[in-house]
Amino acid sequence: MIDFKKIEGIYFIGIGGIGMSALALYFSKGGYIIAGYDRSESRITDSLSDSGCSISFNDEPEILPELFRNTSKKDRVIIVYTPAIPHENRILSYFRDNGYFLYKRSELLGEISSQTDTIAVAGTHGKTTISTMIAHLLKQSHVDCSAFLGGISKNYDSNLLLGESRFTVMEADEFDRSFHRLKPLMAVVTSLDADHLDIYGDQATMIKAYNEFCSKIRPGGILIVNSGIRKDIIVPVDVTCYTYGSGADADYSVSDILHKKDHYCFNLKTPGVIIKDLRFAFPGIINIKNLAAAVAIALICGVTEQEIRKAVILFQGVRRRFDIRINRPGLVYIDDYAHHPEEIKACITNIKEYFGGRKITGIFQPHLFSRTRDHADGFASILDELDEVILLPIYPAREKPIPGVSSEIIFNKMKKEKKKLLRMDEIIDALDVNALDVLVTIGAGDIDKLVEPIEEKLKRG
To answer: What are phi and psi of 342, to 5 degrees?
Structure first.
C-alpha cells in the first residue's frame, strides 16, 4: 500500500500516454505536485501543462524539477512509469539508480481500485468503447462515477471523469499482465483474440491470464462476459456471471435492430425486463453489442431504464474509435485506433454496413514488429476487403526492429491490386480528394498526427 499522505509529488515517465495522462490529471486535481517526461509534445501534454503540470521532452536528469531531482527528498515523491519506456531512459535510470520509489502505472490503478467500487473492462478489443459507454451511462444518471478512460470521450472531451459516486470505471489492460493488479467489484470481458503474444507466447497462456484477472473480482462481485467467449472463462465460485451478445441465449441480448437514417432502433432483453425501442445514434452494429455490456453494468449499478434511454441517444463515442471526422455527400473521413486484425475487421464491417456500397480507401499503419510478424496473414486478408489500401511503415512503439519484419510482408501477402507503400510524409500529397469516397485511417501509432492535416485537405477540397 502506498501512503499518499506522506507524498508531495508524483513524476510520470511517459506522461503523454492516454492512461498515464489520466492518472496525472487525477492526482493533480488531488493537490499533488505533478511533473513528467515524454518523447514529444502533443495535445495531451499541452492540456496537462495548462492544468499546471511541469512537462519536459528531454530525458536529461539535470532539468528535473527540484523536488524530484533532490535525492534528499526522494521519500516525499513517487515515480510512475509504463512498460513502454525503454530501460535505458536516462530519467528512469536516474530514479532507479538513486533508490526512488518506482511504480508501474498499473500499480497506481490497483491502489485506486482497492479503495473504490471498481468496474474494470478487459478484452483484446472493445475496452475503451465499453468503458466509456459505462462511464457515460453512470454520469448521466443519479448514480454517477469517476472514470479512467483509454481514449478521449467526445461527450466530456477528457479521458478522466471525476464524480462523487463510489464507482470507478477503468480499463483492465492485459499487456504486461497489468490487469492482475486490479481488485474490481465488477468486471467485463469483451474478447479473447490472440494478441500480445510477445508477452504470453500463445493464446492459451493469454486466456489463463484473463482467468486470473477474473479471479481478482471481489467476493459477491459481478462478471459480464461476451457470450461468444463464455466457454473459455472460469467464473469464481463467489461471483455472479451474466452474458451479453446478440444471441437469444445471452442474458443481455440485443434484437430487432433497425438502421434508420441517423440512428439505430433495437430491443434489449435483460434478466428482468425487455427494454424496447432503444435509440442509438453512434455508428456501427458492433457498438450495439458493446452497448449491451454497458447497459448490463449500468442496470446492476442502479441506473433506471428511463435514464438509460436518455443517455444512450446522447452517446457521441470516443476520439479515434470509429471517429467520423467528415460526413457530407460524396465524402466521408473516419479515423480509427484499430491495430489487431479482428479490430480492423470490425471497423471495416461497420463502414460497409453504415455506408453500404461506397468505395472505401484505407490508410493503415501496423503497430509493433511482433504483432506484424504474428498476424501478417490476418492483416493482409482483412485489408483486401477495402477498395484501395495505403500501407505505412510499422510504428515500433516499445520494440526494436525484428530482422525481416516490415510492412512489406503484409503488402506482399495482399491480393489487392490497388495498394501502395508510402511514408508518412508522402500521404497528404498522395491523396486525390476528387477520387475519394470513404477514407479511413487505421492504426494505434503516430498515424494520429495525420488526422488533422488530412481533415484540413479534405475540407479545402
So the answer is: -70, -35
Task: Please count the other Cβ atoms lying within 10 Å of the Cβ belonging to residue 158.
Answer: 16
Q: State yes or no: pLDDT of 39 exceeds 90.
A: no
Cell numbers given for 372: 506484424
C-alpha cell at 82: 509504463
What stretch(es) of the chain map to CATH 3.40.1190.10?
108-314
Q: What pLDDT score does 176 carry?
A: 80
Q: Give the model's pLDDT for residue 196.
A: 77
Considering the domain delimited by 108-314, tell me its CATH architecture. 3-Layer(aba) Sandwich (3.40)
Residues 6+ apart with CB under 8 A from 35: 9, 10, 11, 12, 53, 54, 55, 56, 64, 65, 67, 68
Backbone φ/ψ region at 402: left (φ over 0), alpha (ψ -120 to 50), beta: beta
> Is there a contact between 359 and 386 (Cβ–Cβ < 8 Å)?
no
Distance CA 98, CA 274 (A): 60
Q: Which residue is it, cell 532507479?
A: 96
Instruction: Tell me which fold the domain 323-460 belongs to.
Output: Protein-Tyrosine Phosphatase; Chain A (3.90.190)
Report the distance separating Cα 7 and Cα 195, nearest Å.
37
Residue 287: predicted pLDDT: 93
Q: What is the pLDDT of residues 67-77, one digit of tens each?
A: 999 999 999 99
Average the pLDDT over 55-77 and give the result. Answer: 95
Tell the burial category of 195 from Cβ atoms under 10 Å away from its Cβ (0-12, 13-18, 19+).
buried
DSSP lists the bridge partners of residue 215 as none
pTM: 0.88
216-230: average pLDDT: 97
The DSSP call for residue 445 is S
In angstroms, the Cα distances linking 220 to 70, 239, 241, 455 are 46, 5, 11, 49
Please tell me the predicted confidence (pLDDT) of residue 88.
87
CATH number, domain 7-100, options 3.30.300.30, 3.90.850.10, 3.40.50.720, 2.40.10.120: 3.40.50.720
Question: Which stretches of 329-429 are assigned E, i.e. beta strand?
Answer: 331-336, 360-364, 388-391, 419-421
